Structures are given as C-alpha cells and as structure tokens.
Amino acid sequence: MNDLPVPSNPPLPNRERLRLHIPPHRPQPGGHADFGYFRVPAAGVVARPAIDVPSVVTHPLATALIRVLDEENRAVGEWDPGLDPETLRQGLRWMMLTRAYDERMYRAQRTGKTSFYMTSRGEEAVAVAQAMALRPDDMLFTSYRQQGLLIARNYPLIDMMCQIYSNGRDPLKGRQLPVMYSSRAHSFFSISGNLATQLPQAVGWAMASAYAGDSRIAAGWIGEGATAEADFHHALTFAAVYRAPVVLNVVNNQWAISSHQEVAGGEEATFAARAIGFGLACLRVDGNDFLATYAATRWAAERARANHGATLIELFTYRAGSHSTSDDPTKYRPEDEPRTWPLGDPVERLARHLIGLGEWSEERHKAQQEELARLVRDTDREAQSHGTLGEGPHFGVETMFEDVFKDMPWNLRRQQREAEEP
Amino acid sequence: MNDLPVPSNPPLPNRERLRLHIPPHRPQPGGHADFGYFRVPAAGVVARPAIDVPSVVTHPLATALIRVLDEENRAVGEWDPGLDPETLRQGLRWMMLTRAYDERMYRAQRTGKTSFYMTSRGEEAVAVAQAMALRPDDMLFTSYRQQGLLIARNYPLIDMMCQIYSNGRDPLKGRQLPVMYSSRAHSFFSISGNLATQLPQAVGWAMASAYAGDSRIAAGWIGEGATAEADFHHALTFAAVYRAPVVLNVVNNQWAISSHQEVAGGEEATFAARAIGFGLACLRVDGNDFLATYAATRWAAERARANHGATLIELFTYRAGSHSTSDDPTKYRPEDEPRTWPLGDPVERLARHLIGLGEWSEERHKAQQEELARLVRDTDREAQSHGTLGEGPHFGVETMFEDVFKDMPWNLRRQQREAEEP
Amino acid sequence: MPVMSMVQALNSAMDVMLGRDPGVLIFGEDVGFYGGVFRVTEGLQKKHGERRVFDAPIAEGGIMAAAVGMGAYGLRPIVEIQFADYIYPATDQLISEAARIRYRSAGEFAAPITVRAPCGGGIFGGQTHSQSVEAIFTHVCGLKTVMPSNPYDAKGLLIAAIEDDDPVVFFEPKRLYNGPFDGHPDRPAVPWSQHKASEVPEGYYTVPLGRAAVVRPGSAVTVLAYGTMVHVALAAAEEAGADAEVIDLRTLLPIDLETIVASVKRTGRCVIAHEATRTCGYGAELSALVQEECFYHLEAPIVRVTGYDTPYPHALEWEYFPGPKRVAAGIRQALAA
Amino acid sequence: MPVMSMVQALNSAMDVMLGRDPGVLIFGEDVGFYGGVFRVTEGLQKKHGERRVFDAPIAEGGIMAAAVGMGAYGLRPIVEIQFADYIYPATDQLISEAARIRYRSAGEFAAPITVRAPCGGGIFGGQTHSQSVEAIFTHVCGLKTVMPSNPYDAKGLLIAAIEDDDPVVFFEPKRLYNGPFDGHPDRPAVPWSQHKASEVPEGYYTVPLGRAAVVRPGSAVTVLAYGTMVHVALAAAEEAGADAEVIDLRTLLPIDLETIVASVKRTGRCVIAHEATRTCGYGAELSALVQEECFYHLEAPIVRVTGYDTPYPHALEWEYFPGPKRVAAGIRQALAA
Ligand SMILES: Cc1ncc(C[n+]2csc(CCOP(=O)(O)OP(=O)(O)O)c2C)c(N)n1
Ligand SMILES: Cc1ncc(C[n+]2csc(CCOP(=O)(O)OP(=O)(O)O)c2C)c(N)n1
Ligand SMILES: [Mg+2]
Ligand SMILES: [Mg+2]
Questions:
Q1: Ligand 2 in contact with D198 (CB < 6 A)?
Q2: CA distances from A123 to A86, A360, D282 (A)
Q3: In what order do the strands lie in the sheet with D221-225?
Q4: Which site from A253, B108, B180, C218 is most exposed, i.e. has the minimal number of CB atoms within 10 Å?
Q5: pLDDT over 80 (residue D336)
Q6: D244-248 and D213-216: which strand pairing?
Q7: What is the ipTM of this complex?
Q8: pLDDT in tens, D19-57
C-alpha cells in the first residue's frame, strides 16, 4: 500500500496485515435512529440481591438492565421500591420543575441573557429519583447535568438562576460558568469544569466520613464519556481498596458531545462492568425509569451505609437535548433519535404510572405544567431584576481577588488596587 | 469518640457508624510467611480456548491460574506449548544468565561501582518465556524489571553493563539511571522512571502498526502496584476502543516496594479481572512456570496478530529480591517469604522438568551455572575497563546538552559553552 | 490569494500535511466526524478517511500516551486538547515522556508530536475555558511552544510544527479563531477578511519556528506580545500615541532573543504583555532575559502587563482581560520613567 | 534542645500535628508500615495507628483527589509524593481542583492540604529522581509553595503548612535530609548535628509562611537562594571572598518581597541561584520583580545561576549541579560589572 509511513516494514509473507479498528460513527445525521446496538429487556425480571451480598453476586447485573415500569407503566418485580403516591407525585413535580427550569434557562441563553447553558432533558429521573433515594445530608459530587439533585433538595430556584446570570446575587459571585453550582448548605460540592475530577473526590470525602465515624455517605456522578478519564480509575481503585461508603454513578446518556458511547468503550462492554475488575458491586438500571433508578440508588446507599462498600451504578438513559448551548446535535446524530429512544421519557412514564394507579390525571398534569411554568417565569423575572450577565450588575471588581487564598497576599492586594483605579 | 475532627456531625441514632477499611499490612517482618490469601490450583486443569473466541469466553480465566508444570514438574494439560528440549534448554540458559547477570550487577552496586540496581530474581520466566513467545521484531514497552527480555533477544551483556556503569561506552551516554535500558535495534523501548507510562505507549505503538498495515505487534509490562496509575486505565481503554494488537502484562510479584498487592486492590479482585470491564480478553498465569507463561503469551500474541485485539495477562509471581538496592525487605516482610513462595522458583522448575525428560542433569546445570558466572565475570571486567560511575571515564560534558532537541537551540549552545569552560 | 480565517488556515495546514505525509494522523475529542468543537478539523475526516482523522476517548493522558507510542513507531500524530485548560491530565506523558524520550534514549527514539490546544479568554468561558497555560510548558526542556496571532502565521507555523521532529505544543488563541480582536469587546467584531494576514496560500509553506516578527516598527519603546495580545498591543500603541515597536513572538520556545534584544537596545524601554497570570508567567523569563542582555541600554524598568493572579472570572471577564487600556498605561509608564 | 536531622524534624512536625489535631492524617506510597522511602514518616503509623497513617495505591492523581475530598469534608490531609518527579499525574487535581476550590465555591469549600515531595538532585537519582519542579506550581494562583533548607525551618514551616487553610506544596530537598550540603561532593558528608539549625524544639512551633531569612548579612551583593542552594550560596560567598548577603527564601509563594527589595536596594547587585532548569524557572520571576522594584538601585545586571536546560543527567550529576564554583562565578560577575 502506497500510504505506509516510511519507517514501517512490509509484513512478512506468513503474517497477516494488522488493521486499525475505528468505532464507526453511526447512525449519521440525515439517516434514521438505529438503536440496534442494545436490546431492551423486559421489566421486573431482574432479581434483587440482599444489600450485604458479596460484590460478585451483583456482577451478572452488569449486563442486565433493572427496570420496574413495564410497557403499560405498571410497577413490576422485586425492584419495585413500593413508594406511596405522595412521594411519587413529589418526584414527578421535581422532574417537571427541572424540565421547566431547563427550558427557561435555555431560552434565556438563546436570548442573550447569559453565556452558556446545559439542559438535563431526558435525564430528570436520574437526578430527582437519586436525590430522593439518598439522605438530605449525604454529600453530592456531581457533573454539570444533575441539576435535578439541587431542585429535589429545595435549593432555591432563584439562587440557581442568579448563578446562571452571574449577577450581583449569584452565590458564586459571578466567578463560575453557568451551571457550575455549589452549595455547602445542601451538601452539594462545587461543580468542576474539568471532567471526572469529582468522582475520586467523592471517594475521598467518603473515606473522610468513615475516618470520622460519621454516618453520611457520598455519591458521585460522571458521564459515560468521562469514564475514560484517569479519575474514573482512581475513584474505583480507592473505593475498592478502602471500601469507601460511596455510590458511584455513570450516567450513560449515549453521547459525549458528538462522540457516541462506543468511543468511550461502550462497544466492548457495559460501563457497569468496569466495577468487576475492582471487586466492587455494580448495578445497571433504566435511567428513564424513576422507580428503578430510585430502587437501585437506595440499594447502593444502604449497602454503603452498612459498611459493605461502594457500588457502581450505570444509569442507562438518553441525552434528549443538545450537549450545551454551544452545539447543534443535528450535525452529528439523526434528528429523530430523541423522539424514538426505546426507553421513553422519564416524566411521561412516571405520570402514566400514577395515572394508572388513579393517583394522577392528564388535567392535573397539564395544570402542574402550567403552574411550574409560571413559577419559573416569575422566579426568572425576580432573578433578572438582580441583573444578567450582559447588563449586570455584577459583583464589584475588588471581589475578583478574594477567595484565591483565605488571606490575600501582597501581590493580589496590589493587583486589586490597580484594578480598582478608574 | 474523642478524636472526631471538628466538622463532622454525630451519627443519628438510627444510623450505623461508618468505618474506614485500611488493608492490614500482613504478614509482618519477624513473623512467618502466610500465603493464605490465595490458593494454588492444580496444573493442567484450565482449558485453552481458541485464539479467536469472543473475549467473554476468557473472563472466567481471570480467577483461574494457568499452570502447566505439575508438582513433579511434568508438563500437563491443554496449555502445554509442546516445546522441544532445545528450546527449553535455551530458555533455561537465558533465565540462568539473567540471574547471573543480576547477581553480578547487584554486587557491583554494593561495592560502589554504580549508584543503583534492581534484580528480577524469581521473575526470570516472565521475561525470558515471554521474549521467546513473541517475535524478535515485536515492540517491547517494559518496566525496569524485565531485563530477561533483552538477554533473550541477545542484546550484548557488555552494553547492558556499560549502561549500569554509566561509563564512556554506555549506549545511553550516562544519562539514565542504571537499568533504564533502551535499544531500538532490539525493538526495546526506552524504559521510563515514571511508572505505568509505557503501557498506553505500547497501545499507541500497536495502533500505529495497525494503522500502517504492518504485522508487528506490541507488548507492554507493568507491575501490579503500578496498575493503580492512570496510564493503566488509558491503556485498557484505548486497547479496547481501537482493538489494538498488543499484549498487556501485569506482573503481580506481590509487592510494590513495601506495599503488598492488597494496597493496589488485590484484596478485592485479581488484576486479570481488570480486563473484564473493557471487554478485553484476559489470562491469569503462574509466572514461575516457564511453559505456562510461554503458552499464555503465545496465545495472546497470536490473537493480536490475527486482529482479534488485546489481551491482559496477569503473571502471578514473586519478587524474591529487594525492590532495589535502596531498600531492605526484612523491614517490611517475613524473611522466609522468598524461600517459601508456593509456586517455587522458575529456574529450578524448568531445570527439573528437563531433567525429568532426560534432557538435562544436575551436572550440566552446575556446569552451566559456572560457565555463565565466568561469562558474566569476564564481561563485567571488560565493561569496567570502559569505566564505572565513580571512576569514569564518562561521556564529555558537551554531550549533556545533546539530544534535548534534534537541533540545539541557542540557549543550550550557550550553556554548553559555559559548561565547557575550565 | 484565498482569504482564510484562523480556523480555515489551521484546517488547511492539516489538510496539506495529511496529503503530503502518510504518517500524519489526527485524533482527539470530537475532532473526527464532528470536526472539533471549534470546527478546526471540519471536513478532514470526510476527505482523508476515519483512519487518518478520528475521535478519541475523553482522556487527555491517554491521547498523549498513544501519540507518544505512535511517534516512537514513526508516525507524526497531531492531537487536539479540546481546551488548554484540560491539558493537565496529559502533563505526565508530555513532560516526563514526550519531552525526554530523545534525551533518555540517546537519540534512538523521538516524539514528533504536535499538540494543538485552544487557549485564552474572551469568549466568556469562565475559569476552565479561558486559561493561558504556556508558562508551564516553556519551563520544560525538550518541548517547543508556539502561539500564532494570525491566519498566515497559524498555517505556516502549524506545518512547521508538524514537520518538526520534536514535540511542539501549539496554542491557538480561541478569541482569534474567527477574527482579529484588539481587546475592545464593546466594538463590533471584525472578520479576518479585513486583515491582510488573512491572505493565505492554498498549499504548502512554513513559517519557521523560533522567529519573532516585528509587526509595528517604532523607536521609543518595545512591546513584546504573542497571540491575542499582539492585537491588543497594536491598539494600545495607537491609543497611547506612542512610537512603540510591537514584536509578535510567535514562537515562545525557542525564544527569538536576537530580534528582542536588537529592538530593546534601540528603544531602551520594554513592555511585556500576556494574558496568563503574572507570577512566574512567560513574561518573567522575557523580563529576566531582557535585563540580562540589555541592562546598560535600559532607560526605564521593564513593565509587565498581564492577567491577574486569579482564576479567569466569568462575569468580570473584561475587568480581568489585560486590554488596550492597561497595555497603554504600561507603555506610558515605560515612557514616563 | 534536641538535635534533629531534616528527616527527624519533618517527622516530628507530623507527629506533633497528629497529636494536636484529630483531623490530620497522612497517606501516600509506602508511608505507612514502612515509613516512607526516605523514612520521613517512620514510626508514625505505629504510634498513631493505621487509621491516621496509611499506605496508598500508586496513583498520585488518586492520592491528590482523595485529599481534596477529605479537605472538603474538613480533614487536613498530608500526602506524600514519593519524588517530586512523580507529581505530574497529580497536577490536574492540584491545579484545577485544590488550587481553585475556594475561589470557585466563593469560599464555601477549601483544600487545607499539605503535599510533601522530596526534590532536587545530589543522590545520583538520574532524571526521574532529581527534579526541581517548583516553578510549575509557583505559576498557579491558589497554591502556596515552600522549600526549607534546615531542620528548624523544616519543622516550623511544615507545621505552618499543615495549619494553613489553603493547599501548600512542600518541597523537601532530599540531599539535605541527613546533612547540610554545600555543593562539594568530594568533601566528607557532614551530619546535621554540626549545624546550629539542627537544634529543634520537641513540641509545637511554627515558622510563618511567606517570610525569608537573611542567613548571611552582607553589603556588596545579594544572593537569593532556597533549599540546597542556600548552603551552596554560603560556600560560594566564602569562596568568592565576597561581602555577600545571602537570603534563604524559605517560602516561594507568597514571596517575601520586602526582605528581598530591602537587601538589593542596599547592595545594588543581585545573584539568583536555583537547581531547577533556567528557562522560565522561579528565578525568572525573582529577576523580574527585583528589576521592577530596584531598577534605579541596580548597579549591575541580575545574574541567574541555575541548572541547565536539560534533564538531570546521571553520570554528569556534578557537571549539571550549580555548585559553589558556578555560584561564586556568578557573584564575581555581579560584582565585576
Ligand atoms: C478534562 C476535560 N476534558 C474535556 C472537556 C470538554 N468536555 C466537556 S463535556 C464533554 C463531554 C462529556 O461527555 P459525558 O461524560 O458523556 O457527559 P455528558 O455531557 O454526556 O453528560 C467534553 C469532552 C472537559 N470539560 N474536561
Ligand atoms: C509515577 C511514579 N510514582 C512512584 C514511583 C516510585 N516507585 C518506583 S517503583 C515503585 C513500586 C512499583 O511496584 P510494582 O508496580 O508492583 O512493580 P515492581 O517493583 O513490583 O516490579 C514505586 C512506588 C515511580 N517510579 N513513578
Ligand atoms: Mg454522555
Ligand atoms: Mg510488584
């Protein structure tokens, strides 16, 4: 072949030519969605082990998919957490609020009120069900796509919005890119722009909690794409060696910006299976199934709380929106993918389940949708009254030099003075 | 408890106190060896799959141990590579030469002829059998403890020794710490002092070979302790995603300086099992069994050559010597461990196997030992005639500035002039 | 001659080299099918195939390691780090391996790798999409470091970097991708087409590494800048109404000392401008070199105008950015003293 | 007062803090049962238990990440990087996380972490056991950087670092662990007991971060040094027979500018000595600052005496090391000009 790089020598006659495998980018935009790369198992078929089983007992679950809601959205099987309607309605409300909030903030960016935004459309069950399955003081180390955790912990919408607008009331003083929330009061760790760093930090926090004889556990979230980062390996290694009380969640929403999960290794194995080589427990769950997600998270949390160590959960879901306001998904995937995702929409499925139970109705759903849209709109108005990125007001220039260190050294004091000069 | 760090809150009544698990350091020096943490399965019981099976077929092998030489050192089972006596004697000779070389260089350091040395005592089969199972032009990315690979590729002993002495004939011009060999002519990549970096490099080289339609594969070696490093994760991820033609070897010699393999996660799972989560093939082999090591390596190499992708091999062995000339193992492990290692000594086992075949004898063994000791001694004398670290001669000071870049920039030319001034 | 933006010029450089050298390949996060988040590799996979241009797992360390292995084989990989802020996971492979392989193997192995990374602020990217990390790499022996300021240089320097037999860290000021930017965010954005350096030959040419360019001759003060700050310095010189000589360093390592020293010896005054944080930034080395080489010609203290020693804030982006006002003040300070 | 080596003083500092603060814990490679490859944590696990002092997997990045998480919880982890040359895998967690958490969380979370790392050459460790990497971290806002030169300072500075609420990178010149070293490898090794700074109090005390020490008063030239180079500078001053004022910086960030400027304004001449590679080393910042602050007092160019811009070679260790001969030459050069 004529395009051999100079140094390589021709294969010997008795040797096969090697081939480089590049995961094909499929399906392509223009074409139609093709989800043939995985099968959707029936709901209710996966057995639920006791929380104290040896981790190996859970390893077969790496290739299963825990599902509770069946095709008619009835709750079936051992993993049904048996939540009361009140709790389910609360979960539905928080998911709907998350979606309404996302839609509003996405538009706010589109209309130039801020620089950047990322929605969690299609992944609301992951955050909301998991927040409800954990205790309010369990420490959360998240990526940028679990805003539902904050909403389900009643972090004030207005604070979230002011962070998005980087305005004078932004709890983070306008320092962070929109969506990079932080709230110590809500046991929610500062979100990093650097992928994966939060996961081993969650393990470290959990080690500290165990070190202190505390009873709070930690939970960490990472996208399937970011599992290729070193810190994913660090998290699994340290969680295994020190049996840290932590729940490690891989949110497999099929895409990492324009790269399909196959580029992260999804072609060869599931992400839940990464736990096996470390002797960690693992679960693989339908992330668009509120009940299954709740049950799996609860199982892992109780296991950790009882000093049986960490669990890796793969939440199998779909990123229904763009990666962020900076990309156009139709450039890299079929436009009908979000509509045709085989595991459906988490909000719709939980609503249908409640309606099936006679605990919810189309009318109440519509009414709640409108109520939440109003709530979000009104809160947004209030938030904008405190300023937007473009218009301000912002925190004063002097604040730019604060919190680099606890005590400001001379070079920063000097630069602060310089910056304050008119 | 009185030593709670200030910030942690007392556990709620209904919650269990969390405990931090620290892998206990056992057995301790002074005490006796305790190998109760693993069992030694019989030889010949593990089935040998075809080289083109789906990787999942190999995953049960992650908890097995491929052994060919039985208690009487007879070759048994499907993994017997069926090597002719000539080849076996060659392997034995190279292992014995490696050991003789190690002993000589260790003493050279002890007598102040150089700064540092690391022996591979007890692990000779890993390097020698693997070198013989690979093709001479397959590219090797090793750690600092596979000197047997170079010896089995007939890299001149004199060159190795001159590198150890950093003298005027050192192929690496005295730049590298002893044992950090490099020989392009022998398809042996420059050894790095930074752990684990070579493993994903091996994958990258293999990707390049496949990219070029070449037929040479790559092989990489890493210690079990270093598998905790990020680069181990990178190697597995890239090997899986691009199906790179590479053999990845984890040499589990039970110790990482003073840390037992449990500190690297060996308490929870085998190192071979790390492959499962990536859908890579894996084998776990008795690294002190020349035949088993040869057969496993051959299997993985043929699989890679036939474009079936990478295999992770755990070589279960024992570091019979100190980590390096800088540590004293009796400070952290029972002094009788090396003697009582359940899998025996690789040289002795292969010798006994050959004797059993009537192809070797105590006399020939002893004679070869003495011959190799002489060979090493004479070569050492010649090497020292080219200088030692302390006495020199060394490469001239001007060479210190060469090879930083292909073309020397002004700042280095300037510094070179300065350094050459008397 | 075709008119190209910085993005198009960089794309053209890689297109040319993919065509000329079968050993050249490109990989990185989202660089394949999508063509990169800044579209710099757009169309290259379609034209040259998945084998030559492909997506990588999100692991900067793994990407760099694979490139080192490929370089050892004899290929010339071009890897993209999606943002310079994300290069840290790759530092071990870049600093401990790529930069040292030629030395430690006594010349047997090399790392002919080009590492592309968008850097700098100006797009409201916040503290993890705005960093200028060049000084971490200019301290590392064995690495070359480049930062172009316009399309013509970008293409010529990138081809030179790809052809270089040693590892080159190639920083691309993202604020310049689609137009020159003089540090006045309030003014309408200008496309490259209005800048003469947007005239870029279709085919192969190089701009040699290690040579700076005098982009504005002057005799009263020398302003040393690179990347976005070159345009800011030019604006500042105008606004200060100063007879300032502005030098675009283009390559940070090796440093073009001759050009710098010749200028400062003439002007006797020197201002150094960069966007990176001040302390131990690249400007410190420039300042040290200039005072070592030009001590007896200096009529005033060398002035550094830089980013502050804080992370790059989101809302206060323009208070942080060392714009024309601050650079002009630095020029005045140098002239006043 | 007890006499301690650098190793013993560092060990004592950690012993004292483990005793005083239940939130202090130590982990790293081989630091537990074995007590560290340089024995700096020897006996601490036995005394304080496995829960407080334990071995970590060989993953500098994971060690740093765990420390960041523990710091967020409220503990004060002390982590050991076995050699500074192996800190690169931890740079992302150190630079992107530890250094920025206070800022990005608007003060809600902090990283009260102490990172200990043996640095420097002089033990024939070759290029991966000899590096001085301080300049990579002194460029990072949010990090403090320390390098002691004697047992008394080592203990006081380490306690101050552990108590500091921000991340501190604490470099320990390994050549000084067991005795002062003035750069004459040919002369017999001297134990710390013969040095007055080996008198170290048993208990708690601190040497505040950010304060340099004048270790040799003089009026003709100022020599700025830290770590091993302090002893080399003192020897060089004698050998040059110069009335040199030698300043031990002790803390590199924050810089004790006052002490430096006061001295240089008096002497009018300045020599900067460090073991790290020259280009973009910490000395560049010192040189830039001195010329900015003392321009009108400087009678001669500032001189830098540093490691060469190459990896640390094994056989030619002493040709590479900037010993007394080179520093003395630098002093003479500064005085001659
Ligand atoms: C260390 C690092 N590398 C690259 C990026 C750029 N980046 C931001 S998000 C993203 C994709 C992440 O995909 P995934 O982990 O699947 O999470 P998702 O966006 O799907 O929730 C990339 C590459 C980054 N932020 N940090
Ligand atoms: C990145 C890095 N961290 C730490 C070290 C120091 N170190 C050298 S060898 C070693 C132990 C390695 O143990 P293992 O991987 O099991 O290999 P073995 O020595 O047993 O062959 C350590 C910690 C290093 N060389 N590089
Ligand atoms: Mg994703
Ligand atoms: Mg080992």
A1: no
A2: 22, 22, 48
A3: D213-216, D244-248, D221-225, D270-277, D303-307
A4: C218
A5: yes
A6: antiparallel
A7: 0.98
A8: 999 999 999 999 999 999 999 999 999 999 999 999 999
Q: Please tell me the distance from the alpha carbon of residue A42 to that of residue A49, in angstroms, as a whole number.
A: 18
Helix boundaries (H) for B111-229: 124-133, 147-152, 157-165, 198-211
Element (DSSP H or E) covering residue A57: helix A55-58
Q: At what angle are helices A230-241 and A198-211 packed, to 10 degrees?
A: 20
Structure tokens at B137: 């032009």
List alpha helices for chain D, DSSP H. 6-20, 44-48, 60-73, 91, 101-104, 134-138, 151-163, 228-239, 257-267, 282-294, 317-320, 324-336
Q: Quick one: tokens of C150?
A: 């316009």
pLDDT of amino acid C322: 98
**Catalytic residue chosen out of the listed positions C48, C129, C195, C274:** C129
Q: Do C141 and D277 touch (CB under 8 A)?
A: yes
Task: Enumerate long-range contacts of D211-214, CB under 8 Å, 24 or more apart.
Answer: D211/D250, D211/D251, D211/D256, D211/D259, D212/D247, D212/D248, D212/D249, D212/D250, D212/D251, D212/D256, D212/D259, D212/D260, D213/D153, D213/D247, D213/D248, D213/D250, D214/D245, D214/D246, D214/D247, D214/D248, D214/D259, D214/D263
Phi and psi at residue A139, to the nearest 5°:
-90, 130
Judge if the beta carbon of residue A51 lies within 6 A of ligand 1: no
Name every residue whose Cβ is closer than 8 Å to that of residue D172 and which is 6 or more positions away in sequence.
D6, D10, D40, D116, D117, D118, D119, D147, D148, D154
Which A residues, 159 through 188, put their C-beta within 8 Å of a C-beta on chain C? 166-167, 170, 173-178, 180
Minimal Cα distance from A173: which residue of D? D106
Ligand 1 pocket residue status of C131, Cβ below 6 Å: no
Say if pTM beats, i.e. exceeds, 0.95.
Answer: yes
Q: Could you tell me which residues come within 8 angstroms of residue C65 by beta carbon, excluding any fewer than 6 positions away?
A: B197, B200, B201, B203, B204, B231, B234, B235, B238, C93, C97
The token pair at B225 is: 């302790």
- Three-state SS at A226: helix
Q: Are D250 and D280 in contact (CB under 8 A)?
A: no
pLDDT tens sequence across A69-86: 999 999 999 999 999 999
Determine the distance in angstroms separating the CA of B329 from the nearest CA of chain D, rounded to an integer. 10
Nearest to D88 among C92, C288, C292 (CB): C92
How far apart, in whole angstroms, are the C-alpha atoms of residue D170 and residue D172? Answer: 7
Q: How confident is the model at residue B365 (pLDDT cuts 50, 70, 90)?
A: very high
User: What are the tens digits of pLDDT across the range C106-148?
Assistant: 999 999 999 999 999 999 999 999 999 999 999 999 999 999 9
Q: Indicate the Cα dihedral angle B413, B415, B418, B422, nearest 10°.
A: -100
Give tens-digit pLDDT for D162-220.
999 999 999 999 999 999 999 999 999 999 999 999 999 999 999 999 999 999 999 99
D157 by Cβ neighbours in 10 Å (0-12 / 13-18 / 19+) ranks as buried
Q: By the 8 A CB rule, do B252 and B271 touch?
A: yes
**Residue whose token pair is 């002489």:** B374
Please, which pLDDT band fits residue B157 given cuts at 50, 70 and 90?
Answer: very high
Q: Closest CB to C57: pick one of B204, B241, B411.
A: B241
Instruction: Give all strands (DSSP E) within B14-104, no chain letters.
Output: none
What is the rounded distance in angstroms from the CA atom of residue A10 to the CA atom of residue A15? 10
What residues have CB less than 8 Å from D57, skipping those under 6 apart?
A237, A238, A241, B225, B228, B263, B264, B265, D63
Residue A350 · residue A125 · CB < 8 Å: yes
- Vertex D15: Cα angle to D12 and D19 (nearest 5): 140
Give me the residues paired with residue B259 across strands: B256
CB-CB contact of A360 with A351 (8 Å): yes
- Indicate whether A415 pLDDT > 70: yes
- Whether residue A203 and residue D65 make contact (CB cut-off 8 A), yes or no, is yes
